[in-house]
Amino acid sequence: MIHAKKARKIIGITGMPGAGKSLFVKTAQEKGYAVIIMGDEIREEARRRGIEPTPENMGRIMLELREKEGAAAIAKRCLSKIEKAEQNMILIEGIRSLEEVETFKKFFKNFRLIAIHASPETRFKRLFHRERSDDPKNLEVFNERDMRELDVGIGKAISLADYMVINEGTIRETEEKIRKILEEIERDD
Questions:
Q1: Where in the chain are the domains?
Q2: What torsion, rounded to 10 degrees, do the Cα atoms 127, 180, 154, 91 define?
Q3: Which CATH number fits domain 9-187: 3.40.50.670, 3.40.50.12780, 3.30.110.70, 3.40.50.300?
Q4: Three-state SS for 103?
Q5: For 96-133, what is each residue's pLDDT tens digit?
Q6: Do 75 and 38 form a contact (C-beta atoms < 8 A)?
Q7: Backbone angles phi, psi at 12, to 5 degrees
Q8: pTM of the entire predicted model
Q9: Model confidence over 10-47: pLDDT tens digits?
């Protein structure tokens, strides 16, 4: 059984694809946070299976793992990485369901959830220009991915977040919002 470490700050990030979770990760890393990317678990599974990491394949693997291992499957796969992290401040990027939130709250007393939000139009533009292998190449694939994320339960996780960052402005403005929230959480006991 994993036991909570009192001095640790465990922060989860949720948000639709393209909302700005990567910007949150970058800002937290600059502040010395260890970062656990939940999507890396899916990408690692794709590599193990020898499957190309397309949006469709990544979505299928995500759903298969959740069906086979339960709704909190990805969160549970991340627990050992969190425990092994040397830093006391840890950011978990990519929370997609209430079951994942509940898993982290069960194991980490000081867990806080932050949602980052941007409009669908803004998110599609960001993903299209990011050009990662699992990013959508057209609006139809983007919408399919959004529906898959919503089916998993990401909307519920977003709605119950402790903090919300609206990411429609400049990168600098959003980074400032992120830093303020992280500093507030760091001050909390």
A1: 9-187
A2: 90
A3: 3.40.50.300
A4: helix
A5: 999 999 999 999 988 999 999 999 999 999 988 887 77
A6: yes
A7: -105, 145
A8: 0.88
A9: 999 999 999 999 999 999 999 999 999 999 999 999 99
